[in-house]
């Protein structure tokens, strides 16, 4: 039998500024999951301006996809950079993918993209490591070269660099959805049966919508990314947080 409820508070009361940041961050999540994208952008921008790096990363998502704001690759990159500077590992991955593929008004920059992916992989972010491995395994495009003369010899290729060591990723917190009642959130957790993750249900008041209950899954990055991959395959978004 799964016992649901808030995780026990084992630490001291957080400072008031962090409480305010969390209010805006989770208010943005609740708004996003209700398809109130403009409201999510407003809440996350307020949290980011108060120093919340993960809110800045989520703003990057919105500007990259044009959800609730006008799509703009340059603004998306700027918010991802703010998040990366704040120590959000996944933001380096998002920035790397944005540079690899380009975005609205932002041309691709593969060199910068590989640099960012390498930084995220070295910090222990599994999707970045997987992307680098995929790129390394992809066949290189053929390059036409003139036939060597008798005096020319083909130099031996340099040895491949050793892959960077990666450390264990930090646990993640991922919002699954927001619900009108606690019972609905509990029922959703029982339905999903997510292995390796612990549930957390948090009451949150959304402006103009009243009291909602957020269902958050807490656990190792591998379990969170596995769920995210499944969700994205179904056209759903996945939003995680390291604390």
UniProtKB/TrEMBL annotation:
User: Segment Disordered: which positions?
Assistant: 141-171
Q: Spans of biased composition, class Pro residues? A: 155-166
Q: Where are the transmembrane segments?
A: none
According to the UniProt entry, its GO molecular function terms are: peptidoglycan binding
Pfam families listed in its UniProt record: Sel1 (PF08238), SPOR (PF05036)
InterPro entries for the chain: ISR_Activator, Sel1-like, SPOR-like_dom, SPOR-like_sf, TPR-like_helical_dom_sf
Where in the numbering of this chain does the SPOR domain appear? 166-243
Task: Give the top-rank taxon of the lineage listed in the UniProt record for this protein.
Answer: Bacteria
PANTHER family registered for this protein in UniProt: DAP3-BINDING CELL DEATH ENHANCER 1 (PTHR45011)
Query: Which named protein is this?
Result: SPOR domain-containing protein
């Amino acid at each position: 039998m799964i016992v649901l409820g808030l995780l026990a508070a084992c630490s001291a009361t957080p400072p008031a500024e962090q409480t305010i940041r969390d209010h805006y961050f989770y208010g943005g999540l609740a708004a996003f999951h209700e398809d109130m994208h403009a409201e999510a952008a407003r809440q996350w921008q307020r949290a980011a301006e108060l120093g919340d790096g993960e809110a800045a990363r989520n703003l990057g998502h919105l500007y990259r996809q044009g959800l609730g704001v006008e799509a703009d690759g340059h603004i998306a990159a700027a918010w991802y950079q703010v998040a990366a500077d704040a120590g959000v590992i996944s933001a380096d991955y998002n920035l790397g993918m944005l540079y690899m593929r380009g975005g609205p008004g932002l041309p691709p920059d593969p060199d910068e993209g590989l640099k960012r992916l390498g930084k995220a992989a070295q910090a222990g972010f599994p999707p970045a490591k997987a992307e680098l491995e995929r790129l390394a395994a992809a066949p290189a495009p053929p390059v036409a070269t003139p036939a060597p003369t008798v005096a020319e010899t083909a130099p031996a290729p340099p040895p491949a660099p050793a892959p960077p060591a990666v450390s264990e990723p930090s646990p993640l917190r991922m919002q699954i959805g927001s619900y009108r009642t606690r019972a609905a959130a509990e029922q959703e957790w029982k339905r999903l049966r997510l292995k390796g993750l612990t549930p957390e249900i948090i009451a949150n008041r959304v402006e103009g919508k009243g009291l909602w209950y957020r269902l958050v899954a807490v656990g190792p990055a591998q379990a969170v990314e596995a769920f995210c991959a499944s969700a994205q395959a179904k056209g759903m978004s996945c939003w995680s947080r390291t604390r």
